[in-house]
Specification:
3 helices, about 100 residues, single chain
Length: about 100
């Protein structure tokens, strides 16, 4: 069985699962959209065609993680003390937790 974007498979529960099958710039792509409706599959196909090389059916990748380093901890503690007006005792406890 086929659809505009490729082919249709059936999963273990007999649901239709839409698979994109395309050749773009000499490279073959065969990737599941994980969609079980034609409407959702068409949305996934549109996303795929925008950037096939980085397509992920789960969605776009998240931003880079933020790592808690000493300057960021100091910034947080200053904010806690000066903006949130937390007590010195609580700021000291926060400092201990951050360490």
């Amino acid at each position: 069985m086929t659809w505009e974007g490729g082919l249709i498979r059936h999963d273990s529960r007999s649901r239709k699962v839409y698979v994109i099958r395309r050749m773009i710039n000499g490279r073959n792509y065969k990737v599941s959209t994980r969609a079980t409706t034609l409407r959702a599959a068409m949305e996934q196909l549109k996303r795929f065609e925008t950037d096939p090389k980085h397509y992920n059916p789960a969605g776009s990748s998240h931003e880079e993680p933020i790592y808690l380093d000493a300057p960021l901890a100091a910034e947080f503690l200053a904010y806690s003390r000066d903006v949130d007006k937390n007590s010195p005792t609580w700021v000291k406890k926060q400092q201990g937790h951050l360490a």
